[in-house]
Amino acid sequence: MMAGNGLLYPILGFASCVAFIYMSFGDLAAVNYRQQPELDFARRNGTHFVVDGRPLYVNGWNSYWLMGYAVEGHGRQKVSAMLRAGAQMGLTVCRTWAFNDGAYNALQISPGRFDEQVFKALDYVIAEARRHGIRLLLSLVNNLQAYGGKTQYVKWAWEEGIALSSSNDSFFFDPSIRKYFKHYVKTVLTRKNTLTGIEYRNDPAIFGWELINEPRCMSDASGDTLQEWIEEMSAFVKRIDKNHLLTVGLEGFYGPKNPKRLSVNPEQWASTLGSDFIRNSKIPNIDFASVHVYPDHWFQDQEFEDKLNFVSKWLLSHIEDGDSELKKPVMFTEYGLSTENKDFQPSKRDRFYKTILDIIYKSARQNWSGAGSLVWQFVAEGMEESHDSFAVVPWKDPSTFRLTVEQSCRLARIQGLNQQKVDLNNLCSLAKCSEKTCLQSK
């Protein structure tokens, strides 16, 4: 967007260098987390997010690893560095795991048993996020096996001899497992943060809750089993916590009864997973819809240009759904391009990111329901064990840094720079060319 200006890259490169030095060595003094500025809760107004009555368009990221790294004292510096970097790039929301079931450094050791040291790590993540002006979207369980997930819940019930089935999908219908999960949810939502003294359900640093990461119930392609589970669990969450936004954690696939399964889904298999974007997201207790964007995983043989065309169609279709069917905001809570693609080039990742960010910006300009996006994923340096093929250290990647800051600046113009930190205002002021700034319409 600004590549024609030779001064932009040195300016942003210098800014990122300064940010890195500050993140590495600055701000290490003891913090009194009980004396922090007041925040308002993020809320929904029709198809939009609002904070203190003003629009919030989300430019954010995923760092699923925050709690795990905060368990050990030396890892907290990386957590703080990542949150500080997000704030300096003008980002507003970070999505991260509020679960680790039965694995190394487990939060939930077994049903109803919790590791207080790990809970204090989550306390730290939430307190640090608030200190840096970042709100957290906290996911409560994984559909996948990583960090325990629904597989661990089923294993616990099976080992105790009370499970109806050893199938992973029994997580959604087994009454004993549902009790396990409800107890977990209640414990997390009513947790009193040892650093701030605030119960999680009363903390505006939490943007919202996500029921489950990428739910699939392939044993019931009709979608009835998953639908009933979402209805029950969303009602349960809202009985405990009426302050926070709630989403499902969907990938965005259209189900077997939706005509878009043929024209928008990536391939036929996507309608057989037991989920349905429209049906699942329409549940009254669900405040906003979530969608993921991984064309390189969903298609086997498509060329890159075809994948970009799919991405545009995918985003615009779901934004249309938010406006016309759901009447709710739509957030693209994961998007990424893998470095393991045989034809991967950093320039292709830039184009992929830009395609998504431009559509979100257009949605904000047009007052559509596309309320924001969260890139998967940002990491700090020295975290090779937590890297996947999507991971980016943003202050070490000039093009990612540039695209991220420019999106923050563009959205800030719409929602008002006074909602952002002063350093973003200064950064946007610096990032100028002769005729246009990063704040101007592209």
SSE layout:
Layout: H1 8-25, E1 42-45, E2 48-51, E3 54-56, E4 58-62, H2 66-70, H3 76-88, E5 93-97, E6 108-110, E7 113-114, H4 116-131, E8 135-139, H5 149-159, H6 175-189, E9 206-210, H7 224-240, E10 245-247, H8 260-263, H9 277-281, E11 289-293, H10 295-298, H11 304-326, E12 330-335, H12 346-366, E13 370-375, H13 398-415, H14 422-430
Parallel strand pairs: 4-5, 4-13, 5-8, 8-9, 9-10, 11-12, 12-13
Antiparallel strand pairs: 1-2, 2-3, 6-7
Describe this structure in words.
This protein has 442 residues and is of the alpha/beta class. It is built from 14 helices and 13 strands. The strands form three sheets. Strands 10-9-8-5-4-13-12-11 form an eight-stranded parallel sheet.
Salient structural properties:
442 residues; three-stranded antiparallel sheet; disordered N terminus; alpha/beta; 14 helices
Summary?
With 442 residues, the protein is of the alpha/beta class. Helix content is 40%, strand content 13%. A hairpin with a 2-residue loop joins strand 1 (42-45) and strand 2 (48-51).
